[in-house]
Design brief:
alpha+beta; Signal recognition particle alu RNA binding heterodimer, srp9/1; 2 domains; 4-stranded antiparallel beta sheet
């Protein structure tokens, strides 16, 4: 979901830059001037609103996901996510902040040529998004809920958003290319990266999953049975 929202946000930011910065810098196409484009102001404000809604959706998913993982009180097993996940998440957050600050400076530079206030909503929005991302980055490193857990019904973990793998309809559990492979009815397949779990916790994770599923009609592949065994030796 994050990839879809981020991709759409980038597309609308490019469109915004084209119309807003292009009109302010008097971009021309042959004999046509972008600043004379019909309903230009409405288009720019509309694009700003769409970008804000996409950003708000990303923010809502972050904080709701963090709240949801906290609400799971019946984990039979849980552990913090691996350092690799923390590093990767931090890189993504910092990249978001750098990109937004860069776009903010572009807007500030264009504002020097703008006699109106067409860029002001974008200023406020970007400043808000930067502050929110910084706040969540701190939460990402301090919260006890950046973890993975197992209940009798599912596996759930939270990194930058919540991820849930339900056991209903599960037929087979295996490990393939360092990913947990869950095969369901109707040929549905789901994969979970195992490097989100600290290596020293892989055996405990496997045992917790096996404990809640062993009495069900589920096939456990040998690759799953051997998960974490090498770390024990």
């Amino acid at each position: 979901m994050n990839k879809v929202v981020n991709s759409m946000s980038l597309i609308f930011l490019i469109l915004y830059a084209f119309f807003a910065f292009g009109s302010i810098n008097d971009l021309n196409f042959s004999v046509y001037q972008l600043k004379e484009f019909p309903l230009l102001t409405e288009i720019i404000y509309g694009l700003t609103a769409v970008i804000f809604l996409l950003g708000a959706l990303r923010i809502k998913r972050r904080w709701t996901g963090l709240s949801d993982i906290k609400s799971f009180t019946k984990f039979t097993y849980s552990t913090k996510l691996s350092k690799k996940v923390k590093v990767l998440g931090t890189v993504f957050f910092i990249a978001e902040i750098i990109f937004m600050i860069f776009f903010l400076f572009l807007a500030l530079d264009s504002q020097k040529l703008d006699n109106g206030t067409i860029l002001l909503p974008m200023f406020g929005m970007l400043i808000f998004f930067v502050l929110e991302t910084l706040t969540f980055l701190v939460k990402f490193h301090t919260s006890e809920n950046i973890k993975i857990g197992v209940t009798t019904n599912l596996i759930a973990y939270f990194d930058r958003e919540i991820n849930i793998y339900y056991f209903g309809g599960l037929q087979q559990v295996a490990v393939y290319q360092n990913r947990l492979h869950l095969k369901y009815r109707d040929e549905l397949h789901m994969f979970m990266e195992l490097d989100i779990i600290p290596e020293e916790e892989l055996l405990n994770f496997k045992n917790a999953v096996y404990a809640v599923l062993k009495d069900k009609d589920i096939f456990f592949d040998e690759s799953f049975r051997e998960l974490g065994v090498e770390n024990e030796n």
